[in-house]
Amino acid sequence: MNWYQLDAETVEQKLHVTTGAGLKAKQVDKRRKEFGANKLLTEKEVSRWLIFLKQFQDFMVLVLLAATLIAGVLGEYVDAIAIMVIVLVNGFLGYFQEQKAEKSLAKLKEMSAPVASVMREGEWVKIPSGDVVVGDVVRINSGDRIPADLRLTKSNSMETEESALTGESLPVMKHASAIRKDGLDAQDQVNMGFMGTLVTRGSGVGIVVGTGMNTVMGQIASLMTGTTKTITPLERKLAELGKILIFAALILTALVVVVGVYQGHPIYNMFLAGVSLAVAAIPEGLPAIVTVALSLGVQRMIRKKAIVRKLSAVETLGCASVICSDKTGTLTENQMTVKELYVNGKHLYVTGNGYSVQGDYFLNDKKVDRDFPNLNSMLLYGMLCNNASLQLRKGKYNIDGDPTDGALLVAARKFGLSHVLHDQYKVVKEIPFDSTRKRMSMIIEDENKMRFLITKGAPEVLLPRSDFYLSEDGRKMMRTTDKQTVENAINGMAQNALRTIAIAMKPLPDDGDADAAVLENELTFVGLYGMMDPPRKEVKAAVNECREAGIKTVMITGDHEKTARAIAENLNILPAGGMVLNGYQLNQMSISDLREVIDDVSVFARVTPEHKLKIVKAYQENGHVAAMTGDGVNDAPAIKASDIGISMGRTGTDVTKEASSLILMDDNFTTIKDAIIEGRNIYENIRKFIRYLLASNVGEILVMLFAMLLALPLPLVPVQILWVNLVTDGLPAMALGLDQSEDDVMKRGPRNPREGIFSRGLGFKIVSRGILIGVITLASFMLTYQGTEESLVYGQTVAFTTLVMAQLIHVFDCRSEKSVFARNPFQNIYLVLAVLSSLILLLGVIYWEPLQPIFHTTFLGIRDWMLILVLSSLPTVLFGFTKK
Fold it and tell me: Where is the Cation-transporting P-type ATPase N-terminal domain (predicted)?
């Protein structure tokens, strides 16, 4: 069916829907069953069996399986079965780790999916784009991605970018009228909106006529199904580290084997020991643990209202040195409230807070009545030149739309103007707001078919276009002195931290449908709205905490300079004598000029999205790691150019979200601070388990190497080495990845982005602890091995137990860069449980008789345990109380 050829009323009839009411719940369920979810076909998921089998692709695991086969052929069935069981358990652990990471990332994609604004049962609601069905009435604005194929029923100067369909990047102007031609291609169906295309200008309403694979985009879905897994710089760095460690481990393992054979040990025994040692020494679980740590950290961020779209942002967050934050909604409540009006040359004050319609108007201390000149007209104009709606939900008023528009609606309702009054007027045309024009206009037709233009916007934009003003005596010519009076009123409001919006009107002839440049001139100035969006209560403390962490907070706003200064001072963003730059000054400065002063600037006022890009580049050229927030489509370049792009989850456009690394679900500055804490903590946790794993591995290799050099028997048998690798290394290392942040995490400076993994003394900690673990393990073996065959199993059991206990004690030392007692050991309950489970399993292989011949262990007495505990505590006692 060619929907573009039908008029809007026919489309409504065929789809059994009206644009004023939308679909009912029963219709939605029926159509979802009939047409399916609004999603394009994607690549098939990898089979769980393939994921499981992938755990055995590692070269060293394959060598170990070959060694197991050889052990079986040679009749060493107990060793073969034990090693096979350990390999299988290790495979299952890797499988579950990978499944956990994939599920976390899938949930993340689901949460960061675009949303659509649809009319359901008479109310505008926001739903995931995948839940849109055929017949849904959809509202779209500049910056939105169209969720499905639409037949437009309303277009307000709407343009879309359709390069995904046609390859043509120039925007396409849209209208809502039927097109009677046959056989038009998609690019010529200008009354249609197509799934996946971007609204670059204006707004519109349309009825969904195609979803999922039944869209034009569905026809080329094969071009959009390929996905690549994101590899973070940290993961890449660790992969390179892994190759170096594999090379070093193989050389040391080969050295152990060669020396052992030279000392007279059987070749088969040394081969099996070498393979086991290589498997234990190579941290093959490191990438999986890093992935799990990142994905679990991402889940914690989601619970704190921050969605990470790019995993690289997690590590970059720890390097952030400056946060460039929007004011409205991020630093403030995003409940714009009109507090003052300037009309007839007088200042009126408005009571009431937020979106409650309870409030009154006062002139000085006297309540204003309905007869106050021009007040009714000014409030009516503000209500008509408006795209927001005021809705009562659960006894509380909410705004659906722009908060500034919402504030004008609430102001009108406080004066007694009903939304029913709005229905007496018809919107003929809308000239939408954009950041360059700083104004919006609507052509309105009243009941008498008389037309007039209403324009609202920045006072500095409207005042030069106003040739007249409205006084108590009617319309008068605007003189220079009159303009100066209005400017004084603007400055007075700004000093009281009020944001000012001017409103003007112009009578039009019947055919008043000229270009905006012509229409928005020779205006009649009506008055000023002074409104305030109160600062969020929690932001002040968050700003101070960021300052302690070495992170500078900068406020960026389109508000008047004096308004911005007042709010920044209230939030402690602007220090005494701090610098404020406005948009005009930014226009006069090159990036090099801006670089010279930017470190002294705390507030940017009257800023456009274009200025944001200049600000980001200046900070980056000064060596800062900059986080930039934004919500509009024009913010996307600055968001993308910044080191950490942050978009608004509530008010942000889809294109801004796609350009960002982080989405704030609550649009709250405090969430940025929480995300930085989490980002720093994730990086520190990765350092912790690298420290633990590598120190443990160094100890395991050295105990074997030292024993061979001293011509001693093997202090550890292969199955014991594999057991340590599986139980003692794996579980505690995973638990370290879940460690809570330290109390002083936000009292340290930002991490240098060029910092290596082994910086800040980590390399020394790994080597020193590893050597000591190896030495005390060998010492325990030498003290208990008496040179006889009977004492060998006893000595190996003591050495095995000492190695395990040394690692289990050392893991608590890894929780802090300071000392082992710097943190409460019971704070990380996962680590406590991991250590306890490892300890229980250790006791099982020592004292449960059926396992003793498998793991080559024997019973240990009290005196043995005293020796083991003293020796295994030495690494922590000697080094655990220092920062080195």
Answer: 2-76
